[in-house]
Design brief:
The protein has helices spanning 8-37, 39-46, 60-71, 84-98, 147-152; strands at residues 103-111, 116-124, 127-129, 139-144. With 154 residues, the chain is α+β, with helices and mostly antiparallel strands.
Length: 154
């Protein structure tokens, strides 16, 4: 009976399903968490120390794909949820940090003639993760952890 659980498809499906469910539940709570805590305090609460890291068999690309697809679901596009780049960045930062990846999250602005545009993105070793917008056109105004800012300004 135990051998039936060690099937290769199940070994890959279960961690993905658990991650997807975790992201969905966390995103459902995100609007309330942002209202109560704000972004800086929420990021400090998401930070994990070395003892809390979870081991996973999922690779970075798989995690980024799952988080991105869930953040783009129709339910999370309603007005009570943050805009796509913010919810995706926060969810991706949380998922990857919990898995032990040394990620940073950045918030930037860009001003053109009439508009001020904001954007957020996650980096791993100074490279954007799952970001379709060129982050180079934005001036970083806040990074977490603060050491991630030095990685970004190379």
């Amino acid at each position: 009976m135990i051998n039936c659980l060690r099937h290769p498809i199940r070994e890959r499906f279960v961690p993905k399903a658990v991650l997807a469910l975790d992201v969905v539940l966390w995103l459902l709570a995100l609007p309330m968490a942002l209202r109560i805590h704000g972004v800086p305090i929420l990021l400090k609460r998401l930070a994990v120390d070395g003892k809390q890291k979870r081991r996973t068999i999922l690779e970075l690309e798989a995690v980024a794909g799952i988080v991105t697809r869930i953040c783009n679901l129709g339910i999370f596009r309603s007005s009570i949820f943050p805009k796509r780049c913010l919810r995706q960045s926060l969810a991706l930062y949380r998922a990857l940090a919990n898995m032990g990846y040394p990620v940073g999250i950045h918030f930037g602005v860009r001003k053109d003639e009439n508009n001020l545009t904001g954007h957020s993105w996650v980096t791993l070793e100074g490279k954007p993760v799952a970001d379709t917008t060129s982050s180079a056109i934005f001036k970083v105004v806040y990074s977490h952890p603060s050491s991630a800012r030095e990685d970004r300004q190379i």
